[in-house]
Amino acid sequence: GLPPSGSWQDLKDHMREAGDVCYADVQKDGMGMVEYLRKEDMEYALRKLDDTKFRSHEGETSYIRVYPERSTSYGYSRSRSGSRGRDSPYQSRGSPHYFSPFRPY
């Protein structure tokens, strides 16, 4: 999973390599979620940042996975992350943004 010292700021910095991140969150179970302003950035993140090395501000590292999620009825794309059969669904935040959440190994 994400290193215990991994923060939302670390996640935002890492995922920013693929585009403009407007929201990032890290949960206690080692799962994170990132929201991009543009769909193209999310799609690029899915390609470029899957299976990449994540480094926290304290220097702890882990490899992360980025997974696409099914489209929603709100007309925008989201991506969901999961790790070998264990997914955590996300509720819509009600805004037409693009999400690229992921779960580390």
From TrEMBL:
GO terms of molecular function = RNA binding
Give GO cellular component annotations, separated by semicolons. nucleus
Compartments in which it is found: Nucleus
Classification via PROSITE patterns: RRM (PS50102)
> Which InterPro entries does the entry link to?
Nucleotide-bd_a/b_plait_sf, RBD_domain_sf, RRM_dom, RRT5_SRSF_SR
In terms of SUPFAM superfamilies, this protein maps to: RNA-binding domain, RBD
Q: Where is the RRM domain?
A: 1-71
- What family is this? Belongs to the splicing factor SR family.
Q: Which domain of life is it from?
A: Eukaryota
Keywords of this protein's UniProt record, alphabetized? mRNA processing, mRNA splicing, Nucleus, Repeat, RNA-binding
The species this protein was found in: Equus caballus (Horse)
User: Which intervals carry biased composition (Low complexity)?
Assistant: 73-82
Q: What is this protein called?
A: Splicing factor, arginine/serine-rich 9-like protein
Tagged with keyword RNA-binding: yes
One of the GO biological process terms = mRNA processing
Renumbered residue ranges of the record's region Disordered: 73-105
Chief place of localization: nucleus
